[in-house]
Amino acid sequence: MESWGPKGLPFPAPKRSKPGWNEETLAMKRSTSKRSGRRGERGQALAEFALILPLFLVIVFGIVDFGMAFHSYITITNAAREGARLGVVQASSQQISDKVYATSDLSDESTNMTVTVTNAQGAPGGSVVVKVDYEYDLITPVGGLLGFFGGSLGPSIAMSSTADMRLE
């Protein structure tokens, strides 16, 4: 006998599964089909990761390297200003150079930094000029990679800062 639902429509007939297939067999079939699909996707993700990782690392280390170069530039600017400040009160050229080296906290300042002092112990009203030149050595191969793509950045960056103050 057929059962009737609301509004006078018959209920749909229940679905019949394939002969010999029970719920356990269906669950096992579903789990194996999902597993084989994921295994292929895992290999694809690993290949994509292997392609992107070197580029990502170069970008990250390049950002760190340029951040450290910017720190070095700020340091030599501050050191030149401190040297000029000392030169304003009639200090000798050697005292000004010593102050610049003492103020900068760069690790390789003795080999990569040069200090030029002009008009130390000059006449009042004149100006003392302290110029600091520094070669920052890059720690990543970003310069070589830019050269590969047509850029021109060597293994080091030349920086210069000048401070000019009036003598008292």
Describe what is shown at a glance:
With 168 residues, the chain is α+β, with helices and mostly antiparallel strands. It is built from 4 helices and 3 strands.
Distance between the termini: 116 Å
| Largest sheet features | 3 strands, antiparallel
Order of helices and strands: HHHEEHE
The helix content, as a percent range, equals 40-55%
Q: Report strand %.
A: 15-25%
Give the total of domains. 1
Poorly predicted runs: none
Order of strands in the sheet with most strands: 1-2-3
What would the average pLDDT be, to the nearest integer?
Answer: 80
Cα radius of gyration in angstroms? 37 Å
Total of DSSP H or I helical runs spanning 4+ residues: 4
Overall, the morphology is elongated
Please identify the structural class as seen in this structure. Answer: alpha+beta
What is the total tally of β strands? Answer: 3
How would you explain this protein's 3D organization?
This protein has 168 residues and is an alpha+beta fold. The protein starts with 22 loop residues before the first helix and ends with a strand. Helix 1 runs antiparallel to helix 2 (93-103). It has helices at residues 23-88, 93-103, 109-112, 142-148; strands at 113-118, 127-137, 156-166. The mean pLDDT is 80. It has one domain. It has four helices and three strands; from the N terminus they run H-H-H-E-E-H-E.
